[in-house]
Amino acid sequence: MTEPGLEQWLNQADALCRRRGARLTAQRRRVLAILGRTRRPLGAYAILDALRDQSARSTAPPTVYRALEFLLEHGLIHRIESLHAFIGCTHPEHPHAGQFLICRGCGLVEEKEDDRIQDSLGQTAQDSGFKSERPVVELIGLCADCRARPISASEPIGQPGVGSP
Amino acid sequence: MTEPGLEQWLNQADALCRRRGARLTAQRRRVLAILGRTRRPLGAYAILDALRDQSARSTAPPTVYRALEFLLEHGLIHRIESLHAFIGCTHPEHPHAGQFLICRGCGLVEEKEDDRIQDSLGQTAQDSGFKSERPVVELIGLCADCRARPISASEPIGQPGVGSP
DNA sequence: GGACCAACGTTATAATGTACCAATTCTCAA
DNA sequence: TTGAGAATTGGTACATTATAACGTTGGTCC
Q1: How confident is the prediction along chain A (165 residues), in pLDDT tens digits per residue?
Q2: Cα gap B159→B165, rounded to integer Å
Q3: Residues 53-72 of A with CB under 7 A from strand C
Q4: Beta strands B109-112 and B99-103: pairing type?
């Protein structure tokens, strides 16, 4: 999410919520903005720290988790299960479950919405008579850039977030 | 995993480890057996409780996590990310990453190894120049049985494990 | 204004996972 | 067989992630 696009993204989220009769409150918007400034997933406690940094008011875990719950419900963010972390949704127009390419080198996450994957998952579920309600698809590996870099096989670099203390 | 099949499964695991020069010790075998007795995922602390129940010796979390780490490395169990839990692998002959159909009704998990899914994931990764090292594919929903049952839409039933305190 | 309800503040605690070091057990060569 | 070294386990403490419970605030509608 680039800085100029951030405002636009937040406004789009605001509009979406209004349309649904939901309220993107100041607190929720702050959390969304924190996630919107990075393409890396952030843990709840990293978000908490960011909130504490940007305001004098004290903030506790439930506040963050409540905001995250709301944003998840409205498809404005996604949860990355394998990292216990959250990331802004890149196309929140319609609710969906994306697929995530998670680079263990640089920490960047690419969100996909691939029909072939969704079809194959749907087929497999159907074959078992299973009704899928929440698909979790996360590929952990190395992005193109990190594969090209010689040091790529070792520890992650890049900004703090999750996993890089 | 049925009771008569359990011994056979454990022995297969033992043979696999031997072949690789790894040691399926008594402790590791105990953990594997606990997972083998259910088709439901178990949290680390549920396994810990089971261990404590079946022996007078005291046991601490690191013991369980070390055993789980070993079993994961050797493909004898899988980790279910969305549940923070572990489940026995149904076909450990070769290392692999399965796909999991997780019923939120009865808690049962079906492990798949579907070529269409794996192909579509591979395609998507390749399109992005991404090298997938650890795919996480978990579908949370309702199994055929639970869909058929009228009460199915509400809370989970069945044996303890994860999520049913 | 007052009743209501959603959102938020606050404290405490549960659940999951790991760092660290000591004690034990196993293996293999001398 | 025995002792050195490696692998495994025991055990304490603590870090990280998440939620329960209850009171307070603030906006909305009559």
Answers
A1: 556 689 999 999 999 999 999 999 999 999 999 999 999 999 999 999 999 999 877 899 999 999 999 999 999 999 999 999 999 999 888 878 899 999 999 999 999 999 999 999 999 999 999 999 999 999 999 999 999 985 544 445 455 555 433
A2: 10
A3: 57-63, 66-67, 70
A4: antiparallel
The count of residues in chain B is 165
CATH tag, A3-147: 1.10.10.10
Residue B68 Rama label (left phi>0; alpha psi -120 to 50; beta) = alpha
Which DSSP helix (H) or strand (E) runs through A67? helix A61-73
- How many angstroms separate the CA atoms of B85 and B77, rounded? 10
CB pairs under 8 A between A and B: 129
Instruction: Please tell me the pTM assigned to this model.
Output: 0.90
Q: What sign results for the dihedral spanned by CA atoms A38, A44, A46, A48?
A: positive
Interatomic CA–C1' length for residue B45 and nucleotide C15, angstroms: 9
Cβ neighbour number for residue A127 with a 10 Å cutoff: 11
